[in-house]
Design goal:
- The protein has 297 residues and is mainly beta.
- The protein is built from three helices and 16 strands.
- A 14-stranded antiparallel barrel has the order 1-2-3-4-5-6-7-9-11-12-13-14-15-16.
- Strand 4 and strand 5 form a beta hairpin.
- The N terminus is likely disordered.
């Protein structure tokens, strides 16, 4: 009980510090880090901080990774508009009370038509952004976790490159059928271009807090969840969703995220989960389809 009180106090202090620090100015560097990850989370309206129980929890709340109790491989691919692509790859390795996570997150556009100062065509070029992260989560007991992820950030645009470091922190707690999650993403993070005279650009950080509840109706397992998210210099956004376990083989999802309706589903066969999610594109250009795969060993 004493350890639980200490971890909850640490989490609340972390959240309060992040809220106070959020009054500062933030730039737009590392914008790709705000693209949602994982078909389950996206299908539930980007409300996953309080659930955080699969391989893609690294993005929402590294504190929840203690709930992944098997060696797990995860990946996803997003079919974005405007010829953009988004990939993720995750490895989660359980070690007693610890979880080690290796994460790869990449997005970009290929074969962009170049133009010179007079508007005449030149050669094509690519715009690519990537983060590679190593995460550590400690389980204080079977229902409490505290985690962090250190990320290397890289942005390549034509002949120029930028790099930097990012930090994510998270806390997760289960109390009976209730789940509580809090996280701060991209804390103290920045990137700097390899251009003479350039200065490090601060990356806006995001604070999330959410609640979820596990409810059973006969053979159906229902998990509704709600959360808030606050990014530097932006208003608070609300997200809500639910996942319904129709059977051991099928899960359905729906959610609300900033005036958008998302939905999705997963088919589970033993330790393999194949999922899909639909979401209106965050740029307002068409829709996004996300396909995800997770394997447990």
């Amino acid at each position: 009980m004493k350890n639980t009180k200490i971890t909850i106090t640490l989490a609340l202090s972390l959240l309060a510090w992040g809220l106070l620090a959020g009054d500062g100015d933030g730039g737009q560097a590392g914008a790709f880090l705000r693209i949602p990850v994982g078909e389950r989370a996206i299908g539930m309206g980007d409300a996953f901080t309080a659930i955080a129980d699969d391989a893609h929890a690294f993005y929402w709340n590294p504190g929840g990774m203690y709930q992944v109790d098997k060696f797990t491989l995860g990946s996803s691919y997003s079919l974005l508009s405007l010829d953009r692509h988004h990939y993720t790859g995750v490895i989660v390795c359980p070690l007693n009370q610890e979880r080690l996570t290796l994460m790869w997150n990449k997005t970009g556009v290929s074969d962009i038509d170049g133009r010179d100062e007079e508007g005449l065509p030149t050669q094509t070029f690519d715009d690519s952004e990537m983060s590679l992260g190593l995460g550590y989560t400690h389980a204080f007991n079977a229902s409490t976790g505290l985690g962090m992820m250190l990320k290397y950030l890289h942005h390549s645009l034509e002949d120029s490159k930028a790099s930097g470091i990012g930090i994510d922190l998270g806390f997760h707690k289960r109390i009976g059928s209730l789940r509580l999650g809090m996280s701060v993403s991209n804390l103290l993070s920045s990137m700097e271009w390899d251009i003479a005279g350039s200065e490090a650009e601060e990356i806006p950080f995001t604070i999330r807090g959410g609640l979820a509840c596990d409810i059973r109706f006969g053979k159906v397992q229902l998990t509704p969840t709600v959360e808030f998210a606050k990014t530097t210099d932006e208003t608070i956004s609300l997200h809500a969703g639910a996942e319904a376990g129709i059977s051991q083989y099928l899960k359905l999802r729906a959610g609300y995220s900033e005036d958008k309706i998302n939905y999705g589903a997963s088919v589970i066969i033993q330790n393999c989960s194949i999922g899909y999610a639909y979401s209106p594109d965050f740029l307002g250009e068409g829709a996004t389809s996300i396909i995800g795969l997770q394997l447990g060993f």
